[in-house]
Amino acid sequence: MAIARKGPGERPPLRVVGARGEPQLPCNLQAERTVLGAVLIDPTQFSLACGALQPSDFYTSEHQTIFTAMQTLALADIPIELGTLVERLRAEGLLAAAGGQAGISELVNDVVSTATTPHYARIVLEIGCEREAIQIAAEVVSSAYKAQGDVLGVLAYAQNRLSAIADRRLLAEHDAESEFTASVLRTMEIAPARWVVPGLLPVGLTLLAAKQKIGKSWLALALCLAVATLDGHAFGSIAVERGDVLYLALEDTAGRLKDRIHLLTQTDHAWAWPQELTLWTKCPRLDAGGLRKIEGWLKEHSQARLVVVDVLAKVRPARVKNGDIYSEDYDVMTPLKALSEAYNVALLVVHHTRKSSADDVFDEISGSMGLAGACDAAMVMQRARGEHTAVLHMTGRDIGEQSLALSQSEQTHMWRILGDAQEVTRSQERTDILDLLRMDKQPMRAKDIAGELGSNPFATKKLLADMASDGQIVRVDRGLYTLPTIPPTSPSPTPSSSSSSYHPYRDDDHSDDE
Question: Can you give the pLDDT at residue 269?
Answer without folding.
Answer: 55
